[in-house]
Automatic annotation (TrEMBL):
The chain crosses the membrane at residues 45-65, 77-100. InterPro entries: MFS_dom, MFS_sugar_transport-like, MFS_trans_sf, Sugar_transporter_CS. It comes from the Bacteria. Keywords: Cell membrane, Membrane, Transmembrane, Transmembrane helix, Transport. It is a multi-pass membrane protein. It comes from Pseudoalteromonas phenolica. It holds the Pfam family Sugar_tr. PANTHER family: MAJOR FACILITATOR SUPERFAMILY TRANSPORTER, SHIKIMATE TRANSPORTER. Its main location: membrane. This is MFS transporter. Residues 1-101 form the Major facilitator superfamily (MFS) profile domain. GO terms for cellular component: plasma membrane. One of its GO terms (molecular function) is transmembrane transporter activity. It is found in: Cell membrane.
Length: 101
């Protein structure tokens, strides 16, 4: 769809970022209210920790996908840029199903 494609991706990522920002405060409050009095800091720290772990896992998935596409490093980058980037998005459907359940 030409020039509209990157604009659409940018707009959707902005909306996703706003949703995450709105959800984070509510999640931290909910966890802090339901955590035992002497463990509130520990329990709420997991909210930020899991976000960082998610970043590292996503980088691992990208590296794994690129390495599985082709063992030749230069060629795997070409393949990943052409169509391989879609594979992690398709795999994320499993996470969507788990999170909805």
């Amino acid at each position: 769809i030409g020039f509209a494609a990157p604009l659409l991706v940018l707009l959707l990522r902005l909306i996703q970022g706003l949703a995450l920002g709105g959800e984070y405060g509510g999640a931290a409050t909910y966890v802090a209210e339901h955590a035992p009095e002497n463990r509130k800091g520990y329990y709420t720290s997991w909210i930020q920790t899991t976000a960082t772990l998610g970043l590292f896992v996503s980088l691992g998935v990208i590296l794994l996908t690129r390495n599985l596409l082709d063992k030749n490093a230069a060629r795997s980058i070409e393949i990943f840029n052409a169509w391989g980037w879609r594979i992690p998005f398709l795999v994320s459907i499993v996470l969507v199903v788990v999170s909805i359940y």
